[in-house]
Design a protein that fits this description.
Length: about 325
């Protein structure tokens, strides 16, 4: 049986957080354990250039993301793990795709609008890379002829865009690409601890990082926003408006605990402190094996990290180079 091709990436912008885990890394691991899947996971350091300009930070971030991939349990002998910058052919494909990409679709992408507005607020002008960000993503996805793209739901419009470009390329130049599909929980977007939008690296005070200790997790949750109407200990609460309850759902707290919290929050029997204690345990149980593996990986030294990136880069490049050469032939721009 032909295996399904899975591909996803994470930008090299610092430490991974619980949102990355819930939206992406958890699925990366599960898919890589499925023998019917062939997985490609990469560190999107070219995409990072749209918002970051510090070369040494960028180099360090690539290694830190790789450590998190491995710490979450992705086996580099099973999945192909690489840095986007190891595969120059991706930018060739990106150029070909940008020449069939409708600019009006690019200007309405939520990611573009959000980043552009932030840049304007900071008195900056958005760069062209930010606009063509989804085209480069499409090149990542189509370069391995991927079928499934596990990402958080904020990235779903970009996967849809890649699918549209794949169709347009096939219709214009000849059948080459699979039509990729979004893989993930619809609507699954882990909020920040302050419940002002999704958990994000740029909002450092409302993030739980994958390397946070149990004590830090407890402290962060202690001050996290709950149902704003619940002021005194025995006030009845509403789980539907409580941010902590969103976390219980997204992190799959045991059904019995969820049922109890749902019932006893409404009657005021369970307080926010106890509810947060249950959540701290859930979070720390997720993080404990990640910390253990991360410590082992750090103990293996930086050569190990370099080797994983190098080996993965060679493997991925072979596959992507073949696709890009096929695309160039179809488009009529071979290497003379
Ligand atoms: P990045 O680094 O912004 O996000 C990495 C992954 O984490 C998910 N994510 C979340 N999921 C749920 N709740 C959250 N609060 C949360 N925050 C982040 C994101 O949805 C994403 O899956 N553009 C991609 C990187 C990329 C890529 C690709 C992905 C480049 N090329 C090709 C797939 C295929 C990104 O935004 O990464």
């Amino acid at each position: 049986m032909k295996r399904q091709i899975v591909l996803s990436g994470i930008r090299a912008t610092g430490k991974m957080h619980l949102g990355n885990y819930v939206g992406a890394l958890k699925n990366f691991v599960e898919l890589s354990e499925d023998k019917a899947m062939e997985c490609f996971y990469f560190i999107a350091n070219l995409h990072t250039l749209t918002t970051h300009t510090n070369p040494s930070e960028l180099r360090e971030s690539v290694k830190s993301v790789l450590r998190d991939f491995l710490a979450c349990g992705i086996d580099p002998n099973v999945a192909t793990i690489y840095a986007q910058s190891s595969i120059p052919e991706i930018t060739e494909l990106s150029w070909m795709l940008s020449c069939i990409a409708p600019i009006n679709l690019l200007t309405i992408m939520p990611h573009f609008k959000e980043k552009r507005d932030k840049m304007h607020e900071a008195g900056m002008t958005e760069n062209a890379g930010l606009l063509t960000y989804p085209v480069l993503m499409a090149a990542d996805i189509l370069g391995v002829k991927s079928n499934l793209v596990p990402v958080g739901d904020d990235q779903a419009p970009h996967v849809e865009f890649a699918r549209e470009l794949a169709k347009k390329f096939n219709d214009t130049f000849g059948e080459l690409f699979q039509l990729p599909k979004f893989f993930g929980g619809a609507g699954l977007r882990l909020p920040g601890l302050d419940n002002r939008g999704k958990m994000s690296k740029s909002e450092t005070s409302s993030v739980i990082y994958l390397d946070d200790t149990p004590d830090i997790v407890r402290k962060k949750l202690k001050v996290a926003i709950t149902d704003p109407q619940r002021i005194k200990r025995y006030d009845p609460g509403d789980p539907n408006v409580c941010n902590i309850f969103n976390f219980h759902h997204a992190l799959q707290t045991a059904p019995l605990d969820i049922a109890r919290i749902t019932k006893e929050c409404k009657t005021g029997e369970i307080g926010c402190v106890e509810c947060k204690e249950i959540l701290s345990k859930v979070v720390n149980d997720i993080l404990a094996p990640i910390h253990e593996r991360r410590a082992k990986i750090i103990g293996m030294g930086t050569n190990y990290i370099d080797d994983v990136l190098h080996e993965g880069g060679l493997r991925a490049r072979k596959v992507i180079r073949k696709t890009v050469n096929e695309a160039k032939e179809l488009v009529g721009i071979p290497c003379y």
